[in-house]
Amino acid sequence: VFLYGAYASAFLYQDATYTAALSASTGTGPAGSLMTFTQDTGAGEFTLTDPVSGRQWIFADFSGANPGRLKRETTRAWTAAGREGAVYTYDGQGTLTQITTADGQDYNIVFSYANSRLSKLEVRTGATTATRIQEVEYTYFISGTHSADVGIGNELVQVKAAELRTGGDPD
Fold first, then answer.
1. What are the pLDDT digits (tens) for 87-131?
2. Which of 84, 133, 143, 151 is the most exposed place for a label (fewest CB within 10 A)?
3. Below-70 pLDDT ranges, the chain
4. For residues 101 and 107, is the Cβ–Cβ distance under 8 A?
5. Those residues with Cβ within 8 angstroms of residue 148's Cβ, 6 or more apart along the chain or in another chain
6. What is the pLDDT of residue 97?
7. Long-range contact list for 144-152, CB < 8 A, 24+ apart?
8. What's residue 6's pLDDT?
9. Helix (H) or strand (E) run with residue 36 in it
């Protein structure tokens, strides 16, 4: 889920089948919904709020780093209590690198990439690899390294999942 557009107008892009026009200047959310869409220029953020569920999605506006990217997913109740929801972190190219779950759940989901492809996903209880509790590694076909009967260029050929022991050790 991300936004694209300019200034106070944006389009919410969820997947290939759903795109919705939004306007912060009028507070208009997706057509046919009760959602509101607002902009906080001081914080450099757009907020999409569902008044029925209380859920909120906070996106970076188009003036700074990672324009239109989802920054946080929370609820109005959590915000009023001064608590964070899920926090999304990106690298300088706008690629998702980490999701920190909401307060009280205390997990970090860390994404690693090689050659612009997801190479590893780690679930941690803290910031370091020593706190890993689960990991998934992805292997892609590389000519000369893998047999031709395994796949062709850049295809995913193996997924290895592991539940890790104390200390983040996979063995």
1. 999 998 889 999 988 876 778 899 999 888 899 999 988 878 888
2. 143
3. 1-2, 4-10, 12-19, 104, 143-148, 151, 165-171
4. yes
5. none
6. 92
7. none
8. 64
9. strand 36-40
Please, what is the Cα angle at 70 between 126 and 20, to 5 degrees? 150
Give the Cα separation of 68 and 119 in Å (integer). 25
CA distance 86 to 72: 5
User: Given this model, what pLDDT does residue 152 score?
Assistant: 72
Write the single-letter amino acid at 39. Answer: Q
pTM, whole model, 2 decimals?
A: 0.77
| CB-CB contact of 158 with 141 (8 Å) | no
Residue 23: CB atoms within 10 Å: 15
Q: How far is the CA of 78 from the CAs of 5, 54, 84, 86, 148, in angstroms?
A: 28, 9, 7, 11, 52
d(CA 142, CA 127): 31
CA angle 126, 132, 135 (to 5 degrees): 135
Task: In whole angstroms, give the CA distance from residue 94 to residue 169.
Answer: 30
Q: How far apart are CA 84 and CA 103, in angstroms?
A: 6
